């Protein structure tokens, strides 16, 4: 895959073209704390005040998502304690919620992700998060810790992405963003949101992103389009429609040994032994995915309502790799439905409950060929797999005397995989991999100690079945011995919000005792496979503070000043883990740093200037189960400066420029885990720059 480099001057000329002035939006540079830390979150069906939550949660706001480079949600997500998001090369994302990175060579597993009410995670438990572009995201709601009782199998947590156009604001926006940067980066975003009448609102979001990449064999090309519609067809009924299509292609440079990483971090994986280089094999990922879903909500009365979502996805996936060429056609159909009843009319007792179900059916046609320098060769394996996953849930919540919140829920999960192997010159093999039905309970409490201070506690079961890509991984074997990981999570926390919400603090501690943790390993041929690791103990502490030191109403030289600091401590250990003749019991959990400390500073300056700073400290990371190799600790500093000015009466234009890795650190943002030949390192780019403009009306 080769993308010709576009010079930055071409981007600048495009930015300055008069045609962009046809679009404009009133862009407000002043920042308030409510924009960064919303007062409510729609956790567990209904909007709740953050002080009322029985779980550890965070809203990654629209403002925070756009505080740095608009090409990625990376820095916005990493500002949440307990989350680590990586990008091994442009377009290759991984997301860890409390340790799930150990299962994710690419994609997202062990974490359940929704687009509003639509499950974005497929029937097998895998999520292609890299298909999305930030232009289509209004904000992201994060529920940390296992919550299988309401959202199905997961041990890390739940992420609910609110697509642009399906939020409650229904705001008008017509805008165009153009930006360019180092290594041939070019990014374009187009937004058109329109309120047709008081009952119907729609939006269209489109984006194009390309980059040559810092490393050899790391180019990226992505096309994205999304449309969202909301129609209140009468006083009680509402229809929401979401459809998106993403055409993603990115080259995969492969991991480097420590010596190769120090000698030339920009190189792709070189040839070694019987294996050609990543560049010779044209190693890459090509993913074309379409998703569509419809959500119908009907309120029978002020107390009783019903929600039904039906959805489907289609993925055409190709992966020329060093050892083979894999193709996958993936299809998923599903629904999510629930009845909700609530009685909020009494001061002493307010309560609600939900009863529902969610199910998905997935069809996966997977073929592996010889890779003849980027072209398909002789067929090696031909497999058909089907995954049926469905669960049923019930939840009840009561708020007593405006002080105590009691919340209990339980889910019953079913999951099984059928497979058929049609290898060349072999008889067809049919098989079935079933998992025992699993009960997933959760109990949570929250108590208001003071009007500004609340304590919370919860206990919940985490449960996650292996995905299709783990049962049938790149070693081309169907692993019927792989078991789900499960365990019990215990959690307590405190949250404080000052009366004017000028200062917010949150601290939480948890302990998750996991059994049968799923671990990624590689065989002698360099192909990955997965096994269970016995017992894992995950103990963690998460703390955050956010303070509006100066607000726009104070009329000072600085228009606003907001500081946040977010700390994650993860004491994760293999409690019982043997592999062959090796005993890793007591070792640190592979790929998990002990400490992550993220700070952000938003500064509103005179003349409509705004400066956003981002700092991330990550401690050293064990790269293999034996803890014999580590990635060095690093400090990552980013900065973005934006200037907004009005043009004509209702139009405004924003120019922005930014720098990534300001300290020019040498670090690996996304290491290969338990890599063959100790090829662990995927070098991130050194200091690099970008700039652009956003205009609208």
Task: Characterize this entry briefly.
The protein is mainly beta and 697 residues long. Residues 2-29 have low confidence and may be disordered. Pfam families: Plug, TonB_dep_Rec_b-barrel.
Question: Which descriptors apply to this entry?
Answer:
globular, 697 residues, 39 strands, disordered N terminus, mainly beta, five-stranded mixed sheet, 7 helices
Topology:
Elements: H1 8-15, H2 33-36, E1 40-43, E2 46-49, E3 56-60, H3 62-65, H4 74-78, E4 83-87, E5 93-97, E6 108-109, E7 111-115, E8 118-119, E9 126-127, E10 137-144, H5 148-151, E11 157-163, E12 173-181, E13 185-197, E14 200-211, E15 220-231, E16 237-251, H6 258-263, E17 284-299, E18 304-320, E19 325-343, E20 349-372, E21 375-400, E22 404-421, E23 429-450, E24 453-464, H7 468-471, E25 485-497, E26 503-515, E27 518-522, E28 528-532, E29 535-550, E30 560-576, E31 578-579, E32 582-583, E33 595-605, E34 609-618, E35 621-622, E36 630-631, E37 634-647, E38 651-660, E39 688-696
Parallel strand pairs: 7-11
Antiparallel strand pairs: 1-2, 3-10, 4-5, 6-9, 7-8, 10-11, 12-13, 12-39, 13-14, 14-15, 15-16, 16-17, 17-18, 18-19, 19-20, 20-21, 21-22, 22-23, 23-24, 24-25, 25-26, 26-29, 27-28, 29-30, 30-33, 31-32, 33-34, 34-37, 35-36, 37-38, 38-39
Task: Provide a descriptive summary of the structure in words.
By secondary structure, this protein is mainly beta. It has one domain: TonB-dependent receptor, beta-barrel domain (Maltoporin, Chain A), CATH 2.40.170.20. Helix content is about 5%, strand content about 55%. The strands form eight sheets. The chain has a 22-stranded antiparallel beta barrel. A five-stranded mixed sheet has the order 3-10-11-7-8. It has a two-stranded antiparallel ribbon with strand order 1-2. The radius of gyration is 25 Å and the shape is globular.
């Amino acid at each position: 895959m080769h993308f010709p480099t576009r010079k930055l001057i071409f981007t600048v000329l495009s930015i300055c073209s008069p045609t962009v002035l046809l679009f404009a939006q009133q862009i407000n540079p002043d920042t308030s704390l409510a924009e960064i830390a919303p007062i409510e979150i729609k956790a567990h069906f209904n909007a709740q005040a953050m002080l009322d939550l029985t779980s550890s949660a965070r809203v990654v706001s629209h403002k925070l998502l756009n505080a740095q480079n608009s090409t990625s949600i990376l820095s916005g997500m990493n500002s949440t304690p307990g989350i680590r998001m990586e990008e091994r090369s442009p377009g290759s994302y991984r997301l860890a919620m409390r340790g799930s990175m150990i299962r994710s060579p690419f994609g997202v597993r062990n974490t359940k992700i929704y687009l509003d009410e639509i499950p974005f995670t497929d029937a097998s438990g895998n999520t292609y998060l890299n298909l999305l572009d930030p232009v289509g995201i209004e904000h992201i709601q994060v529920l940390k810790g296992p919550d299988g009782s309401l959202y199905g199998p997961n041990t890390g947590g739940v992420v609910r992405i609110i697509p642009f156009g399906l939020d409650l604001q229904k705001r008008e926006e017509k805008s165009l963003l153009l930006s360019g940067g180092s290594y041939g980066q070019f990014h374009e975003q187009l937004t058109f949101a329109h309120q047709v009448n008081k009952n119907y609102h729609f939006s269209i979001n489109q984006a194009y992103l390309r980059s040559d990449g810092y490393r050899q064999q790391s180019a990226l090309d992505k096309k994205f389009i999304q449309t969202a519609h909301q129609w209140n067809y009468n006083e009680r009924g509402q229809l929401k429609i979401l459809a998106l299509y993403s055409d993603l292609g990115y080259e995969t440079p492969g991991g480097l040994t420590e010596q190769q990483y120090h000698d030339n971090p920009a190189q792709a994986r070189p040839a070694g032994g019987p294996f050609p280089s990543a560049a010779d094999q044209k190693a890459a990922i090509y993913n074309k995915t379409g998703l569509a879903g419809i959500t119908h909500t009907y309120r029978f009365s002020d107390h009783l309502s019903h929600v039904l979502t039906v959805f489907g996805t289609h993925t055409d996936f190709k992966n020329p790799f060093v050892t083979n060429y894999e193709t996958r056609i993936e299809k998923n159909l599903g629904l999510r439905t629930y009845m909700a009843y609530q009685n909020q009319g009494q001061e002493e007792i307010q309560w609600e409950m939900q009863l529902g179900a969610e199910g998905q059916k997935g069809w996966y046609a997977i073929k592996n060929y010889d890779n003849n320098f980027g072209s398909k060769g002789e067929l090696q394996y031909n497999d058909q797999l089907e995954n049926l996953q469905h669960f049923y849930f019930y939840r009840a919540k009561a708020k007593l005397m405006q002080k105590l919140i009691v919340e209990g829920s339980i889910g019953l999960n079913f999951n099984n995989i059928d497979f058929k192997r049609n290898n060349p010159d072999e008889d067809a093999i049919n098989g079935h991999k079933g998992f025992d039905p699993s009960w997933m309970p959760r109990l949570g409490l929250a108590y208001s100690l003071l009007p500004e201070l609340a304590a919370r506690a919860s206990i919940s079961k985490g449960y996650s079945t292996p995905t299709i890509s783990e049962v049938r991984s790149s070693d081309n074997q169907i692993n019927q011995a792989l078991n789900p990981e499960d365990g019990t999570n215990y959690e307590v926390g405190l949250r404080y919000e000052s009366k004017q919400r000028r200062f917010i603090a949150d601290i939480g501690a948890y302990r998750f005792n996991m059994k049968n943790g799923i671990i990624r390993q590689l065989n002698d041929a360099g192909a990955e496979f997965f096994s269970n690791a016995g017992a894992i103990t995950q103990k963690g502490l998460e703390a955050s503070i956010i303070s509006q030191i100066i607000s726009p109403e104070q009329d000072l030289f600085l228009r606003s000043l907001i500081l946040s600091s977010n700390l994650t401590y993860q004491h994760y250990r293999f409690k019982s883990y043997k592999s062959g003749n090796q005993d890793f019991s007591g070792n640190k959990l592979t790929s998990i740093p002990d400490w992550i400390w993220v700070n952000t500073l938003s500064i509103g300056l005179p003349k409509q200037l705004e400066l956003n700073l981002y700092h991330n400290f990550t401690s050293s990371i064990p790269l293999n189960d034996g803890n014999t190799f580590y990635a060095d600790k690093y400090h990552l500093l980013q900065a973005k400066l934006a200037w907004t000015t009005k043009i004509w009466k209702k139009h405004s234009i924003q120019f922005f420029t930014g720098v990534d890795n300001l300290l020019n650190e040498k670090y690996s943002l996304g290491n290969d885990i338990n890599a063959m030949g100790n090829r662990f390192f995927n070098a991130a780019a050194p200091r690099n720059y970008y700039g652009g403009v956003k205009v609208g009306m």
